[in-house]
Amino acid sequence: xxxxxxxxxxxxxxxxxxxxxxxxxxxxxxxxxxxxxxxxxxxxxxxxxxxxxxxxxxxxxxxxxxxxxxxxxxxxxxxxxxxxxxxxxxxxxxxxxxxxxxxxxxxxxxxxxxxxxxxxxxxxxxxxxxxxxxxxxxxxxxxxxxxxxxxxxxxxxxxxxxxxxxxxxxxxxxxxxxx
Length: 179
Ligand code: NI
Known about the structure:
Peptide Deformylase; 5-stranded antiparallel β-sheet; globular; binds nickel (II) ion
């Protein structure tokens, strides 16, 4: 079921999420949540979605980048379910890059993020995930996992002159989508 995406200003988006219970890996509850998240992300042409964005404050995120018109220049990212994630930046290198968010529709901003990142967590069946990534993949993971701490990307920005409407900043990207 496609669920409404909560927008910035909704108090629950700013609240930390609780860990998904271990005994509920592989459960019908988790499958139902993930089905809704996938449908909602695809319908909105998102590159990722965190459970709090549909009103569920649990540590579950999904992401994928594949032929996405909103991010035409980035390398693909395999579809990933990431539960109870732990992020560890590798090195001190930070890079600026443009981000958007389905909870901040119609806008983009430049956000500094760790360039290289190791992330660990679990898939929907409790299988361990352990990846070292960089670039846009690292950025997407940091963005999605920030949602689990109640952080939206504008709260990470350091130069508010690089925040604006997608239709103004990137007129070539604006199609039927809101964001
Ligand atoms: Ni977001």
